[in-house]
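thread from #wetlab-drylab

HS: before we spend reagent money on co-crystallization trials with zinc ion, can we at least see a predicted complex? here's what I'd submit
DV: go for it
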Amino acid sequence: MEKYNEGLERQRSKRKRVARMKKFIVTTIVAFMLLTLCVMTFLCIEVISLQRQVDVLSAKVNGVEDVADVKEMVDDSYLDSIYTVDNSNNMAEEGDVPRVYLTFDDGPSDNTNEILDILDDYNVKATFFVCGKDLELYGDMYKRIVDDGHTIGMHSFSHNFGEIYQSKEAFDDDYNKIHDLILNTTGVDTHLYRFPGGSSNTVSTTPMSVFINDLNEKGTVYYDWNVVSGDATSQAFTSDQLVDNVMNDVVQYKTSVVLLHDASNKDATIECLPKLIEALQASGAMILPITDETTVIQHVNVVQ
Ligand code: ZN
């Protein structure tokens, strides 16, 4: 009888052990499955976020023309507000006299006086989008630009993309500095602006609509360009090639805003300038400084 009871007890404890082991195995499997699910969810989120970053970077590397494409990838909320400006009504028609606006960015520099001398020789007025420079070295040149009858506009104080496009506040600080510098050196209260890199630049990490809205609210007009001389590209054009680049494009438009640079290392710009003015004048084009009446040429703008 005792033996029988002992056997029963052994069987019961064996069953208990088996049940415990089963429970342990099932718990382990469920825990493992849950953990795998968590890791997979986390990895999926990581992959999606990385894919977005890759899209934005490759768009920047490939120099996507349409800013809206980049904005879409950066922040969908800006998709509606920014658009590529349609300049189709600016295409030249038979009998049009082309209006050409020569614009010089990045000055004043060691070249400014020479550029002003050439413009003076031909009695041609142009537009200078200037930056903040050492007043001891270049202070007189801001003044000479205005005294010679040219239009002066802002091209940021620092020309440092990382700084000015950091935030609206940073942009405003820089804006006020260049605005006041021009006012103090020339007496001109300018409301003309050219964005470093243009309004369609893909370098700014802040959506350009932030700064475009800011300028629109200030009543400041920004001008981009529709004719590129090529004097700022990595390709070193000869002065004759710079002239050809401009002349080939100018014939296409009623209003041409030509991008040139007033910078110390741009000797080809100085060399091409007399030839360019002569070619433009021979073609019957009018060379004018930007005024309030000038057709505004912009790459992108925001929906009001
Ligand atoms: Zn510039």
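DV: Residues 105-106, 155, 159, 196 surround zinc ion (CB under 6 Å).
HS: ok that's useful, forwarding to the group
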